[in-house]
Amino acid sequence: MKQIIAILRDERVEDTKDALETIGVRGVTFLYVTGRGQQKGRVSARELGGSLTWNLRMLSASALSCGKPPAPGNETAGPSFPPDTEFAFGFLPKRMLIIVANDEEVSLIIQTIMNTNQTGRHGDGRIFICPMISAIRVRTGQQGAKALS
Known about the structure:
By secondary structure, the protein is an alpha+beta fold. It has helices spanning 13-22, 45-48, 54-64, 103-117, 145-148, and strands at 2-9, 29-35, 42-44, 86-88, 92-101, 125-131.
């Protein structure tokens, strides 16, 4: 048994859920997290590809306007930035996926996560695979592989 922990782009969650469901993975936990990796919380407008989330738009607009609120009616549009503009947020919003799976399922799950989330840009994420000693289903008391099915 293994625990798979993946840190992913927030905007890739729905596609990831669908892909995992397609291969038969039922038990998945998604958490909202923030963090930074090699890019140290910096992201360019080009890397964002125009997909600034509402929170990032508000942060960047606030930083550029010295804290002034956006103009009425422009709260969700967000400012337009040249592609070489770089933002330093410190910690970026991500999603953490956690799956506990039988050893023989791990490779397929990893490949599915990679295929769904690989964009070739910084911030695509990380996947960690950890040994799992046991699992217990609280409702029935089943342990090990029986608790996963």
